[in-house]
């Protein structure tokens, strides 16, 4: 049985740079530290994100990055094992791709 695209790990060595798709503009709203609402002006869709996913998407919006760069950036702020952090970033970025919020691009 093939792995789902969400659970397939991203190869750090591929050097894919995660960025917002062309034409995507995001509006942000949060009322607490646990959740963030993001409105994608391009698609007209609204998304509810947990705090970690919101932080990752904000980072990608501000500075397109590889998974390795994201891992280095977030390693200081989240008390997660490096392997766990990498897996979580992989899942979050793949989900963003499915939702049209971020996409991988060749370096």
Q: What is the name of the CATH topology?
A: Outer Surface Protein A, domain 3
Low-confidence spans: 1-10
- DSSP summary: helix tally: 3
Based on DSSP secondary structure assignment, what is the total number of beta strands?
A: 5
Number of separate domains: 1
Amount of helix = 25-40%
Describe the secondary-structure layout.
Elements: E1 17-19, E2 26-29, E3 35-40, E4 45-50, H1 51-62, H2 67-75, H3 82-99, E5 103-105
Helix pairs in contact: 2-3
Give a short summary of the structure.
Helix content is 36%, strand content 21%. It contains three helices and five strands.
Task: List its salient traits.
107 residues, globular, 36% helix, 21% strand, disordered N terminus, single chain, Outer Surface Protein A, domain 3, 5 strands, alpha+beta
Fold and architecture overview:
The protein is α+β, with helices and mostly antiparallel strands. It has one domain (15-102): Outer Surface Protein A, domain 3 (Alpha-Beta Complex), CATH 3.90.930. 36% of the residues lie in helices and 21% in strands. It has helices spanning 51-62, 67-75, 82-99, and strands spanning 17-19, 26-29, 35-40, 45-50, 103-105. The strands form two sheets. It has a three-stranded antiparallel sheet. A two-stranded antiparallel ribbon has the order 1-5. The longest helix has 18 residues, at 82-99. It is globular. The N and C termini lie far apart (31 Å).
């Amino acid at each position: 049985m093939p792995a789902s695209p969400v659970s397939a790990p991203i190869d750090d060595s591929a050097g894919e740079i995660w960025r917002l798709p062309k034409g995507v503009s995001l509006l942000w709203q949060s009322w607490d530290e646990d959740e963030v609402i993001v409105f994608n002006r391009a698609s007209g869709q609204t998304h509810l994100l947990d705090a970690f996913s919101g932080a990752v998407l904000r980072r990608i919006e501000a500075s397109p990055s590889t998974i390795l760069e994201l891992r280095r950036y977030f390693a200081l702020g989240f008390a997660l094992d490096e392997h766990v952090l990498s897996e979580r970033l992989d899942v979050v970025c793949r989900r963003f791709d499915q939702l049209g919020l971020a996409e991988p691009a060749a370096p």
